Amino acid sequence: MVQQFFKVGTVYQKSARRTGRLPAWVFEVTKRDDIYNVIIPFFKRHKLLGYKAKSFDAFCQIAEMVKGRQDVRKLSKEELSFIRKLKLGMNKHYGSLSAGKPLA
Q1: CATH class as words, domain 31-94
Q2: Are 55 and 62 in contact, with CB atoms under 8 Å apart?
Q3: Which H or E run contains 73?
Q4: Do 67 and 77 contact (CB within 8 A), yes or no?
C-alpha cells in the first residue's frame, strides 16, 4: 500500500455517488513537512513523465512559495494570482510534449 511505503498521509475511498464516477481510492498527504521532506524528494529522485512532470513542477513552485509561512492566508494578491494560474494548468495536457506519441 502507498501509505505504508511512504509512512505518511492517509488513504480513503472516494464515494462514487458524490463524484458520479466509479469509486476511487485516494492517497492524501496534508502535513506540509511530509510533503517537503518525503513526497517532493521522492518524485525528484523518481521522475514523472509527460504532462504529469509539468504538473509536478507547478506543484513544487507552489510548495516553495508557501514553505516556512505560518499563515498562508497572508499571501499577497500577486502570489495568490500566480498560484491560481499554476493550479489551473495542473493535471492537464500541455500541448504536444511527445510530438504525437502517447504520454507515459
Answers
A1: alpha beta
A2: no
A3: none
A4: no
CA distance 95 to 104: 14
Report the candidate in 43, 36, 40, 39 with the shortest Cα–Cα distance to residue 68: 36
List the one residue out of 63, 73, 76 whose CA is nearest residue 31.
63
Cβ(97)–Cβ(50) below 8 Å:
yes
This model's pTM is above 0.90: no
Condensed to tens digits (0 to 9), the pLDDT of residues 64-78 reads: 998 888 787 888 899
63 with 36: CB under 8 angstroms? Answer: yes
* Gap between the Cα atoms of 52 and 49, Å rounded: 6
Dist CA 104 CA 62 (whole Å): 24
For 1-51, the pLDDT digits (tens) are: 899 999 999 999 887 765 567 778 899 999 999 999 999 999 999 999 988
